[in-house]
From TrEMBL, chain A:
<keyword id="KW-0812">Transmembrane</keyword>
<feature type="transmembrane region" description="Helical">
    <location>
        <begin position="7"/>
        <end position="27"/>
    </location>
</feature>
<comment type="similarity">
    <text>Belongs to the UPF0220 family.</text>
</comment>
<feature type="transmembrane region" description="Helical">
    <location>
        <begin position="77"/>
        <end position="98"/>
    </location>
</feature>
<feature type="transmembrane region" description="Helical">
    <location>
        <begin position="110"/>
        <end position="130"/>
    </location>
</feature>
<protein>
    <recommendedName>
        <fullName>Transmembrane protein 50A</fullName>
    </recommendedName>
</protein>
<dbReference type="InterPro" id="IPR007919">
    <property type="entry name" value="UPF0220"/>
</dbReference>
<dbReference type="GO" id="GO:0032511">
    <property type="term" value="P:late endosome to vacuole transport via multivesicular body sorting pathway"/>
</dbReference>
<keyword id="KW-1133">Transmembrane helix</keyword>
UniProtKB/TrEMBL annotation, chain B:
<dbReference type="GO" id="GO:0032511">
    <property type="term" value="P:late endosome to vacuole transport via multivesicular body sorting pathway"/>
</dbReference>
<dbReference type="GO" id="GO:0016020">
    <property type="term" value="C:membrane"/>
</dbReference>
<feature type="transmembrane region" description="Helical">
    <location>
        <begin position="20"/>
        <end position="38"/>
    </location>
</feature>
<keyword id="KW-0812">Transmembrane</keyword>
<comment type="similarity">
    <text>Belongs to the OB-RGRP/VPS55 family.</text>
</comment>
<dbReference type="GO" id="GO:0005768">
    <property type="term" value="C:endosome"/>
</dbReference>
<feature type="transmembrane region" description="Helical">
    <location>
        <begin position="45"/>
        <end position="63"/>
    </location>
</feature>
<feature type="transmembrane region" description="Helical">
    <location>
        <begin position="105"/>
        <end position="128"/>
    </location>
</feature>
<protein>
    <recommendedName>
        <fullName>Vacuolar protein sorting-associated protein 55 homolog</fullName>
    </recommendedName>
</protein>
Length: 135, 137
């Protein structure tokens, strides 16, 4: 079998592993932090997971690429909102990393780095799941 | 293997079962050694991931070999996703305990060894399940 079939077989498992790795990295940062991590720092990971869930709710055969008819604009609006949520969560985690590196009383830099890594891994798992399942 | 006699084939299958039992026992021994040698029972949290690992397959997938085939079924893909997410916990829990300073390097190494021995046992079991039982006769 070729690489595409292997990707279709093992891709959802790889997506789950990357998703779990992202959240476990964040849990490591929270556990090893010397100060209490406020709830604001949890939000980028939660929104990244929500965005990954949003664009995997779409069936790929429903996306219409016809240049003539008016396509499924609701579907494209949903995908656009999912993209906006993922981008805002990634930007928010980067902003919190910068804030953690500048402020002395904030959590350490590892908390900010783990937040960025969590968002990146969660969104990568969404992309892996999207590209691997054939439906 | 049609050229082997039937009793030799059955003997080889018994050898496979014995090696699988040795792998599982080795994993359990390493797990308990990681806790008992240092009198620190926090690594027992990894047993939760061993319990969680087969649950998506039990609940969502059927009795076929759907985890090793391409499937259009959303439940099978979700099963694979949950299995992958549960697999990472076996590596993540010892790593977080080591990073937090709760366990040392020795317990961490034994935890990871136990995890990989269990993983090898699961892969051997899935590979053995692929054989049909009627080829012995």
């Amino acid at each position: 079998m070729d690489l595409l079939e292997l990707w279709a077989i093992f891709g959802p498992g790889v997506a789950g592993a990357v998703f779990g790795a992202g959240w476990w990295i964040w849990l490591d940062a929270v556990v090893c932090s010397l100060v209490t991590v406020p709830f604001l720092h949890y939000l980028p990971g939660i929104f990244a997971s929500f965005a990954a869930l949003m664009f995997n709710c779409v069936r790929k055969e429903d996306i219409d690429y016809s240049p003539y008819d008016e396509g499924e604009w609701r579907l494209k609006l949903w995908l656009f909102i999912a993209y906006v949520v993922s981008f805002v969560s990634l930007a928010g985690s980067a902003g919190l990393l910068i804030q953690d590196s500048l402020d002395k009383s904030a959590p350490s830099v590892w908390t900010g780095v783990a937040g960025v890594l969590q968002c990146v891994f969660v969104l990568i798992s969404g992309l892996v799941y999207w590209t691997s399942h054939p439906e | 293997m049609a050229d082997l006699p039937g009793y030799l084939h059955a003997c080889l299958n018994t050898g496979k079962l014995a090696s699988l039992a040795i792998l599982v026992s080795g994993g359990i021994v390493l797990q308990i050694l990681a806790c008992a040698l240092y009198n620190n029972w926090w690594p027992m949290l990894s047993v939760l991931t061993y319990v969680l690992l087969p649950m998506p397959l039990l609940f969502f997938a059927g009795s076929d070999d759907s985890i090793f085939s391409e499937s259009d079924n959303s439940w099978v893909n979700f099963t694979k996703f949950l299995t992958g997410a549960s697999t990472v916990g076996g590596i993540a829990i010892p790593s977080i305990l080591k990073h937090a300073g709760v366990i040392g390097w020795g317990a961490f190494a034994m935890e990871l060894s136990s995890y990989f021995v269990f993983g090898m046992a699961v892969i051997c079991y899935l590979w053995m399940s692929g054989d049909d039982d009627y080829s012995i006769l």
